[in-house]
Structure prediction request, 218 residues.
Amino acid sequence: MGRTAPDANGAVAQIAAGSLPLYFRRRLEDFPRHHGYLRAAPERIAHWRQRLASLGPGLKVGLSWVGGALKTRRALRSIGLPQLSPVLRSPGAHFVSLQYTRCEADIDAFTRDSGIAIHHWPEAIADYDETAALVSALDLVISVTTSIVHLAGALGKPAWILVPTVAEWRYLRSGCSMPWYPSVRLHRQAVLGDWVPVVEEIRSALCALVERTARPGT
Prediction:
């Protein structure tokens, strides 16, 4: 499906959008602090909040564990559900799939073997407006480096990201913050292919968050 390019006769220069940070985001101070710059439809957020509330008390956590296209090093930035089981066994949390690749068989096999439920609602993934509304209704997102990171960050939703040793430039080379998105926290892999320390770090952080939110007045 093609389209006609806009008339550029009046342009005096051109630049690829991906090259703009070279000129306008040269230092950390150049990144504006924000609480999200996208907003999902309020009525759809309310719909998903009601759906999430039906799961019972506890944190509602979105989950994405497989990267996108094969050509973007999917294997290096993905993790199996069994590897995530220490996180998924955390009491006081319900997990909802944000996975946009075919994942039903993986979820069914994991639930059968572990007894841990991961809720997957295809209608929330088929339409990105619905995905944005669901993410907005969640308490937290836990994800590998994939498009859900950018959606959560743009919505200002807290997100904890499993970052491989060799990551895309947007995740920088070190540090736990992502200057594009103040709500995103990075958990970096130290050894190629070894997610165990990262999973334990996230499990510990999630248990602490559950404990804090369970206190009266929080």
